[in-house]
């Protein structure tokens, strides 16, 4: 099957100017499927064939896992299980964490879990009760006249490596105001983190978690969902869910004292903010 897929890739690349990523990396599964779909259409072939190719790729790359999944709200009692998942995957896989070699960081743990009390975050759970994916959300309100300016995230951060990441977030906040783009909204739902167990990637779990987040926003009269993506792959997931880019900062352009601070491995080349309007009930 790998040879058959690679033949598709080689043939399609030969009839277009697009370079298709290696299909041997399971982390690139969704990206490759999307690009194959585009290329099949350009080549005059039936685009529907890509679903069969992707299905076979999933069978080839995914280990045998429990596929009986349910999506439910995360409560504060799930905190330790959520952190266990994040420590095994997100803390290691997120491009900026990887670049700075973050390691253990209690401040990142608090950052990840501080909004769980809102019950706007969701988990994917297998039949054994194990959390295999999460989306962590929190509501952000529009500042009102007379409000004190918010404290910069980096100013409150003692961990030197995580402080670099928080300083980047502060820089984005200083240079981009979402309420200027959407003057009619007074709050938005901020999707802070999406993480999926590597054994379960390629099964659409991130999309299911995002769908449930959209349902929450709809039911709670929240008109906009916002996500800041430091990873190319997370941004691609959101684009497939019809999120649109409203801000981009290439890592090469973020410099402190004239020096580039972050240079994660490609294809992670920029911080991107994507948003989606929600039809409220």
Question: What can you see in these coordinates?
Answer:
The protein is globular. It has 11 helices and 9 strands. It is an alpha+beta fold and 281 residues long. The chain starts with a helix and ends with a strand. Helix content is 40%, strand content 19%. It has one domain (71-277): Aminopeptidase. The chain has helices spanning 2-14, 29-42, 49-61, 79-88, 90-93, 95-100, 106-113, 160-175, 178-181, 205-219, 232-240; strands spanning 70-73, 122-125, 131-141, 187-196, 224-229, 244-250, 255-256, 259-260, 270-277. The strands form 2 sheets. Strands 1-2-3-4-5-9-6 form a 7-stranded mixed β-sheet. The chain has a two-stranded antiparallel ribbon with strand order 7-8.
Task: Briefly characterize the structure.
It is built from eleven helices and nine strands.
String of helices and strands = HHHEHHHHEEHHEHEHEEEE
Report the radius of gyration as a whole number of Å: 20 Å
Strand order of the largest sheet: 1-2-3-4-5-9-6
Corresponding CATH superfamily: Gcn5-related N-acetyltransferase (GNAT)
Sheet-strand content, in percent, reads: 15-25%
Helix content: 25-40%
Proper CATH architecture:
3-Layer(aba) Sandwich
CATH topology title: Aminopeptidase
- Overall geometric form: globular
- Low-pLDDT parts are 1-62
What is the top-level CATH class?
A: Alpha Beta
SS elements, strand count = 9
């Amino acid at each position: 099957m790998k040879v058959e897929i690679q033949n598709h890739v080689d043939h399609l690349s030969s009839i277009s100017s697009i370079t298709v990523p290696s299909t041997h990396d399971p982390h690139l599964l969704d990206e490759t499927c999307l690009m194959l779909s585009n290329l099949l259409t350009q080549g005059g072939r039936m685009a529907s064939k890509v679903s069969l190719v992707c299905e076979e790729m999933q069978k080839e790359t995914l280990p045998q896992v429990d596929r009986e999944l349910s999506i439910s709200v995360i409560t504060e009692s799930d905190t330790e299980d959520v952190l266990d998942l994040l420590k095994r995957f997100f803390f290691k896989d997120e491009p900026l964490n990887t670049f700075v070699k973050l390691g253990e960081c209690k401040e990142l743990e608090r950052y990840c879990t501080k909004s769980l009390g809102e019950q706007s975050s969701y988990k994917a759970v297998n039949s054994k009760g194990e959390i295999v994916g999460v989306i962590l959300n929190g509501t952000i309100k529009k500042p009102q006249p007379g409000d004190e300016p918010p404290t910069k995230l980096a100013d409150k951060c003692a961990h030197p490596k995580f402080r670099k990441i928080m300083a980047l977030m502060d820089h984005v906040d200083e240079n981009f105001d979402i309420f200027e783009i959407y003057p009619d909204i007074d709050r938005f739902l901020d999707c802070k983190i999406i993480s999926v167990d590597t054994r379960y990637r390629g099964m659409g779990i991130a999309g299911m978690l995002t769908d449930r987040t959209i349902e929450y926003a709809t039911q709670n009269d929240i008109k906009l969902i916002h996500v800041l993506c430091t990873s190319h792959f997370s941004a691609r997931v959101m684009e497939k869910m019809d999120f649109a880019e409203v801000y981009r900062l290439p890592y090469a352009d973020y410099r402190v004292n004239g020096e580039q601070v972050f240079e994660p491995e490609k294809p992670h080349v920029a911080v991107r903010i994507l948003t989606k309007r929600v039809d409220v009930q």
